[in-house]
Design brief:
Chain A is 30% helix and 23% strand. Chain B is mostly helical. In chain B, helix 5 runs antiparallel to helix 6 and helix 11 packs parallel to helix 12.
């Protein structure tokens, strides 16, 4: 079943020089129980998409879409109150700086307990408090925090980033969400903790059928833990499809460059050869090129690339390029 | 927390040391005779002078003089006032409660009005309500307090004649001096006209309190508004929203606490301004407080009184400052971290 179905999502920012289009007609869909990675460089608009889904962008951003469906309901057409109720029930999100996403002046126990919705506590109201506490401890155990007593009584600044992120995950799964959006959940963490967290997310996906939208700039970690992958460049969707297929036979030059820049995906790379990288750097949002935004950096760019390519489809593999790489792998 | 307290008190000791040094050196820095400046006596004959020099240890070195000065301050011998030839400590004790009463009510009023208005202004920053609150706060912030006070006197006392323009209570009412805090004394006193006296005292209190509260209220509005807007942008608010809490719950559980914690500290920082403004207010409304007394003393070149006033007011400001810092640390876990 299709959980999330977004077509041509555009997010614009009003600035003094007019509208800046930070996300340009991106389509994204997510099935139940699916894990999808959203990969792109910083500034490619991946966090904006996540925030637009959860509805926490502030008023300066304008969100428009041809279709913005959650379980068949168009979120953009609902009132903000109805929307908050649906999202509050079904979607949870964790952020890249866990310690800043927790209220610094409240103890963890209080924040975790308030994330547990009332309908999950079956018991008379006078036992709610005890049940809530018990459930909070259970949640902490689920995310792999053993010393629950100390953590529940701590303020966020007294805990490490890794524990804070685990608490964030515990808060996110408290309501048994259908979708968990993880926005660069491991950037602030050490590498051993990173692996732990990815495994945790993967296990919730497998055990509970919770869909996960994993947003990251690290292709290799995302590729390992996801089934589907969407690649963004500068606010445009360049390629989307099955992770394995996409890594094996990328159709877009940007995806190709991204894969070639990761040493793990090049087992037969000789020692001391320079890694492949596209020339130039990602443009600022005020000065994006017209048409395909990769244009000036693309090795295969031709005259036609000043027109934005439409999203084309080869079986389950979507790409937007006038001159896709077809020779690769054959 | 204990360490924090200890560190704060240690710091405060140095501030008081510097303050006492300044107060001591004033005796020499003021023009005129040092013996007169210290004792407050105007006519001193030769034998008395000998006695006083010995008493103040003026024949010894500065360090011993300073220690003697500290000793006198602690034991309550603050000298006499040039103007009234009364012991200064007695005068201060009589006057200080009036100022404290006025300042406390003004501060209270500024909280009651300022904090809700600031929150409203933060929630509707672009609406007419929010904009007009901000505009009013800006006007109040830049209003000269003596002009504002005189304006209110002209309107309410002279034109309408509904409120008195000077003093703490009408001359008809005789209130036995107890603590010096007028309302408390009236409630305490065993008198038949308590109701009327209370009514009269409140009438006297109204205008000065409003005038004095104007500035702190506007500061509070602007401060709470900015703090609230800032907190509302933080990630933990987004997390709370994503948890499915509604606006009121987010405000109550996460917004208010984080936005209002800095306000506690703000009290301490605003207190010195408040006392300065209280002096002006006291002069305008002939309020028998320490501020008016200090300004009168300055006009009369009443050096011992200036010295005593400086000591009392500075001590009070420092103490309040420290108290709010400690309270802030007590309520805010982040401040205890260091």
């Amino acid at each position: 079943m299709l959980l999330l179905d977004i077509k041509n999502l555009t997010i614009e920012l009003e600035t003094a020089d007019g509208l800046v289009r930070a996300v340009d007609r991106v389509s994204l869909s997510l099935r139940e129980g699916e894990t999808r990675g959203l990969v792109g460089e910083s500034g490619s608009g991946k966090s904006l998409i996540a925030k637009a889904i959860v509805g926490v962008l502030n008023r300066r951003w304008q969100v428009t879409a041809d279709r913005f469906h959650w379980l068949g309901k168009d979120l953009l057409r609902l009132s903000s109150e109805q929307r908050r109720q649906i999202i509050g029930r079904d979607i949870a999100m964790i952020y890249q700086e866990p310690s800043r996403s927790l209220d610094p002046t409240a103890v963890i126990g209080e924040q975790l307990e308030e994330a547990i919705p009332d309908h999950l506590l079956n018991g008379p109201w006078w036992r709610r408090r005890a049940l809530r506490r018990k459930k909070a401890i259970g949640l902490l155990h689920k995310v792999g925090v053993r010393e629950h007593q100390r953590v529940l009584q701590s303020y966020p600044y007294q805990l490490s980033e890794g524990i804070c992120q685990k608490v964030m995950i515990a808060m996110a799964i408290a309501k048994n969400p259908k979708l968990l959006i993880a926005d660069e959940p491991t950037t602030a963490l050490e590498s051993t903790t990173q692996a732990q967290l990815f495994r945790l997310l993967a296990s919730f996906n497998q055990l509970k059928g919770m869909s996960v939208l994993l947003i990251s700039h690290e292709l290799e970690s995302v590729a390992r833990y996801t089934q589907k992958l969407s690649v963004l460049y500068c606010g445009q969707l360049v390629e989307a499809g099955e992770t394995r297929q996409l890594l094996h036979a990328p159709l877009h030059p940007y995806t190709d460059a991204l894969i070639k820049s990761v040493p793990e995906f090049q087992p037969d790379l000789a020692a001391k050869t320079p890694l492949y990288a596209l020339p130039g750097s990602i443009p600022t949002l005020q000065h994006v090129p017209i048409g395909c935004r990769l244009g000036p950096r693309c090795p295969n760019a031709r005259k036609e690339c000043v027109k934005t390519p439409a999203l084309e489809r080869q079986q389950n593999h979507y790409f937007s390029c006038h001159f896709p790489l077809t020779t690769k792998g054959s | 927390m204990t360490r924090y307290l200890f560190r704060r008190l240690f710091l405060m000791m140095f501030v008081f040391l510097a303050l006492s040094l300044l107060a001591f050196s004033l005796g020499y820095l003021f023009p005129g005779d040092i013996v007169q400046n210290l004792s407050g006596l105007r006519q001193i004959d030769e034998s008395q002078r000998q006695q006083l020099v010995a008493y103040y240890q003026l024949d010894k070195n500065y360090l011993q003089q300073y220690l003697a000065f500290l000793n006198r301050i602690v034991h309550g011998d603050w000298g006499l006032s040039f103007a009234s030839q009364q012991p200064l400590l007695q005068e201060v004790k009589l006057l200080l409660p009036a100022t404290l009463e006025l300042a406390a009510y003004a501060l209270l009023l500024s909280f009651i009005i300022g904090i809700p208005l600031g929150i409203v202004a933060a929630f509707k920053p672009d609406s007419i309500i929010g904009k007009s609150i901000s505009a009013l706060a800006m006007i109040g912030y830049s209003l000269p307090i003596f002009w504002w006070g005189l304006l209110l006197i002209m309107f309410f006392s002279l034109a309408l004649g509904v409120l008195p323009s000077a003093g703490r209570i009408g001359v008809l009412y005789e209130i036995p001096h107890h603590s010096g805090f007028m309302l408390y004394d009236i409630l305490q006193a065993d008198i038949s006209y308590r109701q009327e006296a209370l009514h009269n005292a409140l009438q006297h209190l109204l205008l000065p309190t409003v005038v004095l509260a104007t500035f702190p209220t506007t500061v509070m509005v602007r401060f709470v508004r900015d703090a609230m807007l800032n907190v509302w942008e933080q990630n933990y608010i987004k997390t709370a929203r994503a948890k499915g809490l509604n606006r009121g719950q987010v405000l109550y559980r996460h917004g208010l606490r984080n936005a209002l914690l800095p306000v506690i500290r703000q009290i301490g920082l605003q207190f010195s301004t408040l006392i300065t403004l209280a002096m002006l207010t006291e002069v305008i409304f002939s309020w028998p407080g320490i501020g008016r007394w200090l300004i009168d003393s300055i006009y009369q070149r009443n050096y011992p009184a200036i010295q005593a006033g400086l000591l009392v007011i500075s001590t009070m400001v420092i103490a309040i400052n420290m108290l709010t810092e400690i309270l802030h640390a007590f309520f805010n876990p982040l401040a205890r971290r260091g």
